[in-house]
Amino acid sequence: MRDRTTGDEAGQEAGPEGLTVIGVPVGEGPPPAEVPAVVAGEPDGPVDTGGGVLSARYRTLTLGCVSMILLIAFEGMAVGTAMPAAAEALDGVSLYAFAFSAFFTTSLLGMSLSGQWCDRRGPVGPVLAGIVTFGAGLLLSGAAGSMWVFILGRAAQGAGGGLVIVALYVAVGRAYPERLRGAAFAAFSGAWVVPSLIGPLIAGTVTERFSWRWVFLGITVLVVLPLAVLLPALRRQAAGPPPGGADRFDGRRLRLALVVAFGAGLLQYGGRELNWMALIPVLAGLALMVPGATRLLPSGTFLGRRGLPSVIALRGLLSAAYMATQTFLPLMLVTRRGLSYTEAGLALAASGALWAFGSWAQSRPWAEGRRERLVRGGTVLLTLGTATTPLVLFDTVPVSLPVVTLGLAAFGMGLVVSTLGVLVLRLSAPEEAGGNVASLQVCDSLGNVVMLTLVGSAFAALGGDSSAVAHDGALEGAVGPAAFVVVYAVTAVTALVSVAVAGRLTPSSKGTATAAAV
Fold it and tell me: Angle at CA 41, nearest 5°, toward 364 and 68?
């Protein structure tokens, strides 16, 4: 019997790290002669006929994928702007947090379902189901007459988004030769630039001039065009099950995903309260989430085991550090340096473009063969950016410093995140690519929720109640510097750990198995 975690026959010894992977070890040349090298996607992968991601062969698929990412990105940037107005209009301010946690919880389920669906039927079904679910959720939220209906719509949006994003990653592995995968992921990153710059502005204008409902209903109309462009190309180039794919869905993994999602929701809920009773949902959430995630993600992920587990773990660490750095920066500039919200928001404006530039850089031909070094360099840039951002707390430091430090971190993220997408496909057998991509996305989301719960609770405990901050810095100085110092100390340590994990992406040279968790 074959163990899917190690790839070895039952009873045989795995390599020294307990894990081996399919494919040529990253940055180390071919494996020993007695071990046959099997690169994920070959020989079953696409034939490389030359050209780039916008050549005639790939242009329609690339534009379809990018337009789909553009839609999801715009929703992510615009909805946050309209949410306060929606909560007030529906008399649901007390349920405000649930609108976010519902999206996150169901996105985890969507990602896990999409991974299995792609490994058994291909990415066409998850994309179609995901975008229909996503659109239905937008309609439901836009037409909601109560806050609970609105939250239900947000849950549908999360499920749809989770289905789509994993399927698009799998489509890259199925349709593009390996030399173009970095460029495809760079295009995905570039799709976030415009929404990050104009999404909040458009959403704010629509909310003020018309109604918050049109933010949701208007995005629903935009669903049709990306779907019409993407589906035909996806059916031509990535349809059908992968070779060796399983026939049935793994009910155990879906149940684990449900447990992890519910645990994460409890953790978020309890982490928002500062009283002893809040420990009950926090502890219950951890009791569900930790063992569930250990079984859901590839074996050795939380130990930073070499190869695929470290690729997955690194994604969670990076996302956690960067998200916390970005989330608390505007509040720090408003409360400690007296900037308006608009001025503070400008500190974030350049980060999207620099992230896209970093992603573009890793897609250049010279990057192949240097991917592990790119990842290590990117994690160092993230650490430097995270550690130096809180220097703006000193009045003698120029208030523009975070534009540079966050830009440095964003460029590092662009280098690393897209490269990790390439590596997870390289280290996956074709029939396991969906499950491993789902693990990558799930770890990303889990990293965010754990970090934001941890630093958010510490921030609030030290007097940093973000809800008490008035517009235009009217309560300048109300939040003490210690609250921000703790936040950025935790994020800097997390980023520093990512530097260490970045050195463990090269798999053990013994064996040829992939590391999909059972």
Answer: 65
Give residue 514's pLDDT: 41
Mean pLDDT computed over every residue of the chain: 77
Q: Is 445 left (phi over 0), alpha (psi -120 to 50) or beta?
A: alpha
CA 400 to chain centre: 28
pLDDT at site 247: 65
Has residue 371 got a pLDDT over 50? yes
DSSP for 452-516 reads HHHHHHHHHHTT--GGGPPGGGTTTT-S-HHHHHHHHHHHHHHHHHHHHHGGG-SPPSS------
Alpha carbon distance 477, 55 (integer Å): 55
Residue given tokens 């649930």 in the structure block:
98
The string of pLDDT tens digits covering residues 234-279 is 888 777 777 666 667 777 888 888 888 888 888 877 776 667 777 8
d(CA 237, CA 124): 10
Peptide bond into 398 cis (omega under 30): no
Number of CB atoms found within 10 A of residue 84's CB: 13
- Do residues 166 and 437 make contact, with C-beta atoms less than 8 angstroms apart? yes
Query: Pick the residue with more confidence: 313 or 468?
Result: 313
Cβ atoms within 10 Å of 280's Cβ, excluding its own = 11
What is the largest distance, in Å, between two alpha-carbon atoms of the chain? Answer: 70
- Cα(400)–Cα(164) distance, rounded to whole angstroms? 37
The CA distance from 250 to 89, in Å, is: 42
Q: Partners of 2 in the beta sheet?
A: 9
pLDDT of 517 strictly over 70: no
Q: Give 9's strand partners.
A: 2
Q: Fill in the DSSP letter of residue 427.
A: T
Distances (CA, A) of 65 to 144, 209, 373, 461: 30, 32, 28, 43
CA-based angle 82:84:87, to the nearest 5?
Answer: 105
- Mean local confidence (pLDDT), 104-119: 85
At residue 28, the 3 state secondary structure works out as coil
Q: At which residue do the structure tokens 């550090």 appear? A: 321
CA–CA gap between residue 38 and residue 291 (Å, rounded): 32
Predicted TM-score of the model (pTM): 0.73
Q: What is the pLDDT of residue 118?
A: 86
Gyration radius of the chain over CA positions: 22
Alpha carbon dihedral 368, 60, 169, 317, in 10-degree steps, equals 70
Judged by average pLDDT, the poorest of 32-36, 114-118, 376-380, 397-401 is 32-36
